[in-house]
């Protein structure tokens, strides 16, 4: 610390000149040795189950990703994903989300698509048509995603369709979405039409003359009554009795009692999902009804088996895309290899077999990413590429899409499965 000040005038002009010269030299030396300041780089995120995403479930949060983020010159491809992460359908459809995540992670680990990582922009529609309208508007109009996965369930798809007439390219994650011809929307899951055609072919072949359909009173039930009636008429020789019940009913004993009293009924079709399907199955067990029960394909899930535990019918059938029972397919079937490439990692990670919900997620994501890889992020080109493919091989089944058919499945690739010792086995 200086205790006094030394006036510069006392030292004289030569000294001041010398000091100034030394300062200039010091500055020049310092600049020559300095390095440019590096641009900050983002560290790779920690390992996580879900791929990179923007979550819009009541607040924004960026999930962690297993893959490093893309370089600034290759911005991520942002793909919308509308699904129920809350509400009554969240647990039933949870494996759809796991399937989407698994395929997305595999793509990102492999370097992304044409150098672009996939970023999922997710919204929770709570399983309701009203919320679906809100979140689809936002993901399309504000987020401007290049493609869309979802929504699930028939009523939610119907609510979303008017908002998607001009794109983006997307895949409905349901078996009854019925995408409009020449639209930007497709469906990669087996359709209810193909499932019901296969069911009545099976029933007729095996000598069933009369069955009962239990359907809910909502739009899903209305579609079931129409489609089952059409499939039965096409097959011929099988009469269908209709029984209805409310979506919120917690007991259908009156309907099941009527069914038990009709000795001519040989099988029961329950066209509902999750708890709505579990209730009539439980009531059938309580009433000692031991008829074969065919449940709608959305129930081909591990969650559904937990719902009916202790009330399992002696014979439980479900129709499905053949990939769900890939282990029963011959090695010559190309679906087997694709299905195993997703189903085996799924089981290794989650400790349970990949069910139809998981396959729904597998094929929805796969179709979007295959189209992106082929033609880039242009919805019109993606649409046209899918429509003109000779065949698109999915994990569940092959699809032959056309301009006028955005479902592309066939009853010949549908199988009837039966629950045997906790595993779905192909019986037809």
Share of β-strand residues: 15-25%
Round the Cα radius of gyration to an integer and report it. Answer: 30 Å
- What's the rounded overall pLDDT mean? 84
Q: How many H/I helical runs?
A: 13
What separation lies between the terminal Cα atoms?
96 Å
Unreliable parts:
1-49, 58-72
How is this structure best described in words?
By secondary structure, the chain is an alpha/beta fold. It has helices at 8-11, 13-33, 94-109, 129-142, 154-160, 192-205, 219-235, 253-261, 275-286, 302-307, 334-350, 356-375, 379-387; strands at residues 53-56, 60-63, 77-83, 118-124, 147-149, 169-172, 185-187, 210-216, 239-245, 267-271, 293-295, 316-321, 392-393, 398-399, 414-420, 423-426. It has two domains: 53-189 and 346-410, Rossmann fold; 193-321 and 414-426, Rossmann fold. It contains 13 helices and 16 strands. It is globular and about 70 Å long. Mean pLDDT is 84; it is low at 1-49 and 58-72.
